[in-house]
Amino acid sequence: MQRVLALILAGGKGTRLEPLTRDRAKPAVPFGGAYRIIDFALSNCINSGLRKILVMTQFKSASLDRHLNLGWRFLCRELNEYIDVLPPQQRVDSNWYQGTADAVYQNIYSIEQAGSDYIVILSGDHIYKMDYADLLKDHIESKAALTIGCIPCTLEEGREFGVMEIDHSRKIISFEEKPAQPKPLPGDPKRCMASMGIYVFNTNFLFDQLCRDATDPRSSHDFGKDIIPTLIQSKLVRAFPFHDKNTGRSLYWRDVGTLDAYYAANMDLVAVEPELNLYDRSWPLKTYMPQEPPPKFVFAQTAGANPRTGHALDSMVCSGSILSGGTVRRSVLGYNVRVNSWATVEDSILFDGVEIGRNCKIRRAIIDKRVQLPEGTTVGYDLAQDRASGYTVTDSGIVVIGKAD
Q: Are 383 and 397 in contact (CB under 8 A)?
């Protein structure tokens, strides 16, 4: 792993996650109460033994930079281990990144200085746990020009990803980015094989392809749209299915690029036996955790016509939060959240510093940082009223309240 460099693409606008991305990059969006989305790719790198990491940022990167500085500065530079942030430097030209391949090409000088033999390119906005060492081993042993991590998904989901066809040796024989009609798997007409946006290249070969693509006026300078379809015509490009080594079943991987997908992935965590186990000590998820007191649950007044109890069921509650006579069910609460007396919060995600006033009723909502809802507020019960209040309402009826100014 000493000769491997990890590149994490973390510069996307994340427009489909607005208003959560109104003031932050998509990889910096909180997830699971205590984490940011990018923590999953970074933790995978560290747990896989990858300790030379470049994070390429672009849009609204201030909160992402701050998070990386607070929580991810523990590697030893003297041992040639690092997590460095690469903002757009415009050394090649004066443009913003034109595509994923162009983002890497514009940082080619910094990448060369790492002196790596192999490069793993990752997306900073997916939720999953993966040992990249297995992927690298497969790539090296097969002598492939490019290896792509992939996972089966429904045909409907495949319209949002790169979809590939593979033969019996896992050679990719066709690749189409976000097809209108994804090609189904052989013998499985309802599913297709989707790219996870995880690529392994030999370093010098990658540089050659980036330089060739950069001079092509017809190219959009994107891995999925341009680089990969060109390579499969002349080079060995292989798929690496993301599955359990023992059972062969597909493992947990979520693209949280839309509000509904983001909400569903958070709700996965509060299941009794979630598919994604945050409590697995053999694969720790690292992040920045502020110094806050333990969560507190107060009032147990069950007598009388209007009981007042502070408790949470089937939920995750972070440090500093106080349930002061309010009830929380099937929800994810960040740091320093307060739920006041006789309030109920159900099937919701509350970011850091949110305060729910007395007698509020909240369900199927995402509430961004520091929002304070006054006494008696109702969210998620009358979607027409929620829209009239200026809140975002998704196709599935999730109400999203943007960050407080």
A: yes
Residue 246 has pLDDT above 60, yes or no: no
Give burial (CB, 10 Å; 0-12/13-18/19+) of 32: buried
CA–CA separation, 205 vs 8, rounded Å?
A: 19
18 close to 366: Cβ distance less than 8 angstroms: no
Q: Mind giving me the DSSP string for 192-242?
A: EEEEEEEEEEEHHHHHHHHHHHHT-TT----IIIIIHHHHTTTS-EEEEE-
Per-residue pLDDT tens over the stretch 296-354: 999 988 877 788 999 999 999 999 999 999 999 999 999 999 999 999 999 999 999 99
Q: Name the nearest CA neighbour of 245 among 379, 327, 135, 368.
A: 135
Alpha-carbon Rg for the chain, nearest whole angstrom, is: 23
Any idea what the CATH number is for the domain that residue 199 is in?
Answer: 3.90.550.10
Contact 73, 105 (CB under 8 A): no
39 occurs within a structural domain = yes
63 and 114 co-located in one domain: yes
Across the beta sheet with 338-339, the strand order is: 296-298, 322-324, 338-339, 355-356, 372-373
Sheet of 349-350: strands edge to edge? 316-317, 332-333, 349-350, 365-367, 399-401, 392-393
Q: Which of 116, 144, 135, 136 is nearest to 5 (CA)?
A: 116
Say yes or no: 346 and 209 in one domain. no
Is the separation of the CB atoms in 75 and 81 below 8 Å? Answer: yes
- Same domain? For 73 and 138 the reply is yes
Give me the numbers of helices (H) and strands (E) for the chain, helices first please: 10, 31
